[in-house]
């Protein structure tokens, strides 16, 4: 698949971004495994700040790139097929975070876990889960509205006219006018897709912030370590599978070459 200029730039950014995420993960795991290491609350908050700032940088760059070419984020060439399979409107699904929290509460130590949540914390996370689910559904309805709009009467009429132009039933002057109308229609579609993407990203950020607001600094580090591990490991599995598929296809091609 050919990359657009925006796709190329974002691919380069994403590779560096995910590598830095891995560096932060190693720091978090070191803190989690070393029981002799004594960190103050300020130290833990500083680590949390590093991670959240790193995530914010991702969305800042993403939104700027999407304003140039939003479509590359709906079919991202920088992700593996496995990562794409789990994508929800250009990113991870927010409700996944709550399943991660549930899983981490049942993981035995050592390592990142959330076994010491208080009843109050559990109650607040459950309230957040319900709220985020409603916001997910709201974004999905907006995406459905954008998809249905593709069959809007004006769009259908442009398709009909464009077909007639291709069949040389209309003069060149009219063809130019129609091209202008098509450009306006496509721009409206892309604007809608960009709006949906940003709405989905806002729910993702709101979910992360909401969970972190409930957790104390120590729990926040374990939670962030869990999210980083999941993202990085999914990428490694996906890349490994893609490379294996590519190797198989290459071998098949070589076998067929005379």
Automatic annotation (TrEMBL):
Keyword Coiled coil set for record: yes
Keywords: Coiled coil, Kinase, Transferase
Coiled-coil region: 115-154
Pfam families, A to Z: DOG1
GO biological process: DNA-templated transcription
Entry's Gene Ontology molecular function annotations: kinase activity; sequence-specific DNA binding
Signal peptide coordinates: none
Taxonomy, superkingdom: Eukaryota
Domain DOG1 stretches: 7-244
UniProt xrefs under PANTHER family: DOG1 DOMAIN-CONTAINING PROTEIN, PROTEIN DOG1-LIKE 4
This protein's name: Leucine-rich repeat protein kinase family protein, putative isoform 1
């Amino acid at each position: 698949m050919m990359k657009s200029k925006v796709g190329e730039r974002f691919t380069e950014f994403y590779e560096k971004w995910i590598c830095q995420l891995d560096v932060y993960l190693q720091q978090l795991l070191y803190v989690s495994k070393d029981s002799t290491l004594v960190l103050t609350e300020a130290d833990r908050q500083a680590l949390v700040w590093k991670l959240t700032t790193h995530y914010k940088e991702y969305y800042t760059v993403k939104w700027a790139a999407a304003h140039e070419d939003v479509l590359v984020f709906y079919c991202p060439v920088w992700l593996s097929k496995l990562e794409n399979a789990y994508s929800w409107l250009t990113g991870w699904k927010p409700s996944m975070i709550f399943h991660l929290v549930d899983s981490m509460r049942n993981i035995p130590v050592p390592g990142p876990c959330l076994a010491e949540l208080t009843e109050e914390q559990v109650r607040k996370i459950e309230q957040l889960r319900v709220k985020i689910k409603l916001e997910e559904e709201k974004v999905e309805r907006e995406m459905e509205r954008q998809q249905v709009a593709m069959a809007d009467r004006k769009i259908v009429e442009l398709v009909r006219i464009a077909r007639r132009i291709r069949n040389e039933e209309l003069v060149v002057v009219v063809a130019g006018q129609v091209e202008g109308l098509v450009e306006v229609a496509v721009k409206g579609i892309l604007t809608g897709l960009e709006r949906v993407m940003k709405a989905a990203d806002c729910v993702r950020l709101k979910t992360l912030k909401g969970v972190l607001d409930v957790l104390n600094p120590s729990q926040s580090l374990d939670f962030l370590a869990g999210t980083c591990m999941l993202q990085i490991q999914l990428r490694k599995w996906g890349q490994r599978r893609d490379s294996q598929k590519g190797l198989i296809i290459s071998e098949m091609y070589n076998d067929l070459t005379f």
